[in-house]
Amino acid sequence: MPAPVIVATDLVKKYKDFAAVDGITFEVAPGESFGLLGPNGAGKSTTMRMIGAVSTRSSGSLSILGLDPNEHGPAIRSQLGVVPQQDNLDTELRVRDNLLVYGRYFGLPRAQVAARADELLEFAQLSDRAKAKVDDLSGGMKRRLTIARALINEPRVLLLDEPTTGLDPQARHILWDRLYRLREQGTTLVLTTHYMDEAEQLADRLIVVDKGRIMAEGSPASLIREHSSREVLEVRFGSERNATAAADLAGIGDRLEVLPDRILLYAHSGEEALAEVTRRGLEPITSLVRRSSLEDVFLKLTGRSLIE
Amino acid sequence: MSAVTAEPRSHARAWFVTEHKIRAMRGYTGTIIATTIGTPLLYLFAFGVGLATLITSNVGPVPGISYLEFVAPALLATAAVLVAMEEYTFGILLGLKWNPIFVGMNSTPLTARQIVDGLMLFIGIRMLITTTVYFVVMLAFGAVPSGWGILTIVAGMLGGFAFAPVAAYSATIQEDRGQFAILQRTVILPLTLFSGTVFPLTQLPAFLQWIGWLSPLWHASELGRQFVYGPTEPIWLTVAHVVYLLALGVIGWQLCVRTVARRLNK
Amino acid sequence: MTTTLDRPRSGGVKALYAGNARAVVGRGLLATRSTNWIIVLTGVFEPIFYLLAMGIGLGSYISGVTDARGDQIPYAAFIAPALLAVSAMNGAVYDSTWNVFFKMHFGKLYQGMLATSLGPLDVALGEISLALLRGAAYGTTFLLVMQALGLNLSWTALLALPAILLIAFGFASLGMGITSYLKTFQQMDWIQFVMLPMFLFSATFYPITVYPEPIQWVVQALPLWHGVELVRGLTTGALTWAMLVHLGYFLVMIALGLIFTTRRLRALFLD
């Protein structure tokens, strides 16, 4: 097995007394697509900034591409591509100029950057917008341009912080498709997300993070297998009756979660669980059977929803 | 009209806008107090006392007027113009674009006219405070020989009001490309310096004196001088200053209502 | 390989500087060309307007001023070098405060730059070089205007150009560090407020002998006075040994400013 590109051991980041990242340990192998899943404020972005060599750790050890970010910031960053949570494109420059200038920040020769910029505009499906102003692009286009920009130096690792947050469903799917291609080409991806569908789509392996700590680790499928049932039955009785109905549902399926607006019943077969609910004489206003997702894993592990 | 909500009268609604602007200014209390008091102190000292030591010949149209007395009414008018300009430019574009409170106000029963009226009232209040403080500092420097001097406050405010057409222009700006900086450097600054403010207009070559005649700042400064140490000019000219300043202000105000209404109605 | 130190050391110059400040300069020139060239262009008029109004307009009421060697010189020749120094200061302060403030808090431009192999020192040097380029362009134009009006009294006026670059460098390097502490528009307004008395009282429009002695000392402690005196000495040709003190003042200011700014940038962006 090749040497890992990222090794983090007991990584801690403290802001005064508050530990945003509180001792996390993980490795990322070359070519892997690695995800950090967790709610807002879990410490994902802070971890990403430490990996990106723009934030000094408080304790623990960290090695990126075999180098310590405290000593070799510029050298590490020259091998990384960074897509921050909020686009920070250069609005004073036009679309293609954004790529050219960014490439020059890496000290790359002009001709090489120019050729690469055209390829990346193609890849980001922005070739016809090369001369457009950044402010005139849609949210999805800006995001694709930010990703194209992060690829200008042919990075060994691409860091993506919440790559599709705030985008409409169509724009998300276009973006996922682009990222999927990068994965196929062997680029190492590290991404954070609070969308479980995104983690399921893009990550080979992920850690579930909450309050600066790792709650679980594994592939999306194995996490679901380990921490949830095959299917979930969601029933609603109206916000007034949910709590009383929950008492009557006890014993159906493996486990039950009462949320403010609905009740989740975890069972191998959702249809059988629903049949049992009706047999007990309960009549939910709506019912839905679906497959377990990472959202359910997170709920099981922390007792809280991912999106609050 | 529904019976439960009383309909406030139009000018009362304009006051809501003024009130909002006053509240929003609170965050800037420190710098505003410091600038309002500090600026007249610094300028009157630098020009009226420091620079005055170098001035050997008489600047006034009649003998016996000190350089301090000559320059002070112009500095006061300039201060009023700068305060007003800040609101005519940044104040307008802030409300329409950067932090679009006018757009928010427009989704309540407030109309464009009421918004602009409220803003003008707010500018009036700001100018009144600035010029009053300036006048008090002038008194302290002994720069006001005439008992009519207090009217220089009105002259300064009229000068600021007369720049209202700038507000109408600001409301048409869709994208900030530094227009205000350009306006400041190519129009406002030359008007400030070549409008008979720090030296008499007659000192300019004849073919440049029209700059002063057009400039509200020249009219406001000359008007202020009439109150501070005048009269030194025929009465018709004094009336002309007032009429010119008022006319520019009213036209600018009305134009501004129109451009703001058009912008909000998009 | 991986260090296992519990308390990480802060890196040396390698962690701060990639030797690529020119990429930041390149970006600035491109941005100027594509968006705000007209603002940069109109900036050249400001000191010229002042010179015409104060030097020529008001100057006719002033019989003359004495220079550092006690010779009588025309008033315009007295204030022109001061305006040159002031414009170097203003340009550098604007570039290193408002401009940096916006890029830092609104454009998030530095965040993007520092995600690449650039370090904070590359960014600081790049931004300062841009300010100096602009200062050199303005300074050259103004010196040409002075020449046309016959206000350069000696060949040493040629040395005024490097002198104003030194002044701009001093203000820019310090200004960036100060801006890094500021978070709100209110705080930015204070910069203007502090600059105003310095502009008015640093022997710009009249000699400081007007003031009582203690006030003279205060003025002489401030950087602009040193800048004005240095440039004035060069354009009037009234050279004195005191000019070496002015020169030293700015060299120290640059050194301290650079150390201060780089530390601040590191704390802000790499912590």
Automatic annotation (TrEMBL), chain A:
Annotated signal sequence range: none
Membrane topology: Peripheral membrane protein
Classification via SMART domains: AAA (SM00382)
Compartment annotation: Cell membrane
Keyword annotations of the record: Antibiotic resistance, ATP-binding, Nucleotide-binding, Transport
ATP-binding keyword on record: yes
SUPFAM superfamilies linked to this entry: P-loop containing nucleoside triphosphate hydrolases
Any matching Pfam family: ABC_tran
PANTHER family xref list: ABC TRANSPORTER ATP-BINDING PROTEIN, ABC TRANSPORTER ATP-BINDING PROTEIN NATA
UniProt protein name: ATP-binding cassette domain-containing protein
TrEMBL record, chain B:
Membrane topology label: Multi-pass membrane protein
Annotated transmembrane regions: 31-55, 75-98, 119-141, 147-170, 191-215, 235-257
Predominant cellular place of this UniProt entry's protein: membrane
Keywords: Antibiotic resistance, Cell membrane, Membrane, Transmembrane, Transmembrane helix, Transport
UniProt-listed InterPro entries: ABC2_TM, ABC2_TM_bact-type, ABC_2_transport, Nod_factor_ABC_transporter
Localization (cell): Cell membrane; Membrane
Every ABC transmembrane type-2 domain range: 31-263
Entry similarity comment: Belongs to the ABC-2 integral membrane protein family.
Protein's name in the database: Transport permease protein
Automatic annotation (TrEMBL), chain C:
Keyword Cell membrane (UniProt): yes
Key word Transport present: yes
Keyword terms of this UniProt record: Antibiotic resistance, Cell membrane, Membrane, Transmembrane, Transmembrane helix, Transport
Membrane topology, as annotated: Multi-pass membrane protein
Transmembrane spans: 37-61, 73-93, 153-178, 190-208, 238-260
Localisation: Cell membrane; Membrane
Domain ABC transmembrane type-2: 38-268
Lineage: superkingdom: Bacteria
Main localization, broad class: membrane
Family: Belongs to the ABC-2 integral membrane protein family.
PANTHER family (alphabetical): NODULATION PROTEIN J
Name of the protein described by the UniProt record: Transport permease protein
